[in-house]
Write a structure and sequence with these properties.
It is a single chain. This protein is an alpha+beta fold. Helices cover about 35% and strands about 25% of the residues. Strands 2-3-4-6-5-7-8-9 form an eight-stranded antiparallel beta sheet, covered by helices on one side. Strand 5 (about 100-105) and strand 6 form a beta hairpin. It starts with a strand and ends in a 6-residue tail after the last helix.
């Protein structure tokens, strides 16, 4: 994924422009694609690797078609048995840095801070997000559902984002996810983006609105 230069700083890049750029970098989805993606996110939220056949069964789509679509998309991670363990920001196993998604007693993981803000709307659950500031190491927690992010602790937490300037590819974790992080304050966020000039800071509320564009890309109209 190529990235567009962004002026470092909080609030200097509009939510709309970031949303449009990220949305434009993602693969085009048809109705059956959205059904496959929704089912996969929801099955993964149960905390176990997902058999491709289970996706077809969940939505009534031929298994060969499901396999073909999954094979055509970047960002689909499988284990040695062919089961899906990672998909578009969601993971079964712990990653570094660690973004925990806790719902209904199950813990799964996100690839980056922004992923924690759009995945809850797709799986349709209230999710407790737990992460840490990469500069200070201090914890951050948020409750996220389709309607927004609340209970943000600490209240001044921020999210770094990078503005893509091209389609996403197989390097998405390195090119995008490793630069979408949580920070407990303007102080730590500013220190980090000073060394990463293609990033900018957003409030958690604004980052949620960017994430909403990704949620509605999978489930049109949800939360609106």
């Amino acid at each position: 994924m190529a990235t567009r230069d962004a002026t470092p700083g909080h609030g200097e890049t509009s939510v709309e422009s970031v949303s449009q750029a990220i949305n434009g970098a993602m693969p085009v989805l048809f109705e059956t694609d959205r059904q496959i993606a929704t089912a996969l996110y929801r099955l993964m939220s149960l905390g176990k690797p997902v058999e491709p056949a289970a996706i077809g069964e969940a939505v009534g789509i031929d298994g060969d078609y499901v396999e073909g679509r999954l094979a055509s998309w970047p960002g689909v991670v499988r284990d040695q048995g062919g089961r899906i363990v990672g998909f578009w920001g969601h993971a079964i196993a712990k990653l570094d840095p660690e973004y925990r998604l806790i719902a209904d007693g199950q813990t799964t993981y996100a690839w980056c801070a922004l992923d924690t803000l759009f995945i809850p709307g797709i799986i349709g659950k209230t999710v407790r997000v737990e992460a840490s500031d990469p500069i200070s190491g201090q914890p951050i927690s948020i409750l996220v559902d389709r309607d927004g992010a609340r209970g943000v602790s600490p209240a001044g937490a921020l999210v770094s984002v990078v503005v893509p300037d091209g389609p996403s590819g197989y390097d998405i974790i390195e090119s995008f996810c490793h630069r979408a992080l949580f920070f407990t304050s303007e102080d730590t966020g500013a220190k980090w983006i000073a060394e990463h000039p293609d990033t900018t800071l957003l409030s958690v509320a604004d980052a949620f609105e960017v994430g909403r564009a990704l949620t509605t890309r999978i489930i049109p109209g949800v939360g609106q």
